[in-house]
Amino acid sequence: MPIYVMLTTLTDEGMKTLKGKPERIKEVDKEIMERFGVKVLAQYAVMGPYDFVNILEAPDNDTIVKMAIELGSRGTIRTLTMPALDVEQLIKDLKEL
After folding, report:
1. What is the DSSP letter of 68?
2. Which pTM value belongs to this model?
3. Contact of 81 with 64, CB cutoff 8 Å
4. What is the pLDDT of residues 20-38, one digit of tens each?
5. β-bridge mates for residue 53, sequence order
6. What are phi and psi of 66, to 5 degrees?
7. d(CA 31, CA 71)
8. What's the CATH code of the domain at 31?
């Protein structure tokens, strides 16, 4: 299944939610698996322009876009999502050029 990197920034509302209910992170992870079939492979809180780095596995681009729109529409986060390519596969593909 394709892998995606999602960089997440909390909005002011998201900061309030996280402070008041930190376990909400895991609730959302469970929700996106059940609703969209998107699995969180790794998740890190980071410092800098983004608050979280998420490594996700999803069936396809359409699914990851729908999930990102759903999460963003709640007003608690903004996301930047990128497909991730396995380096070994990239090397193999480039050798075929």
Report:
1. H
2. 0.91
3. yes
4. 999 999 999 999 999 999 9
5. 7, 44
6. -60, -45
7. 10
8. 3.30.70.920
64: left (phi over 0), alpha (psi -120 to 50) or beta: alpha
**Helix (H) or strand (E) segment spanning residue 7:** strand 3-10
CA distances 78 to 52, 71, 86, Å, are 11, 8, 26
Q: How far apart are CA 31 and CA 62, in angstroms?
A: 17
Q: Which helix (H) or strand (E) holds 61?
A: helix 61-72
Structure-token pair, residue 80: 């930047």
Segments forming the whole domain that contains residue 53: 3-95
Number of domains comprising the chain: 1
Residues listed for the chain: 97
Nearest of 7, 2, 3 to residue 54 by alpha carbon = 7
**Distance from C-alpha of 28 to C-alpha of 92, rounded to nearest angstrom:** 36
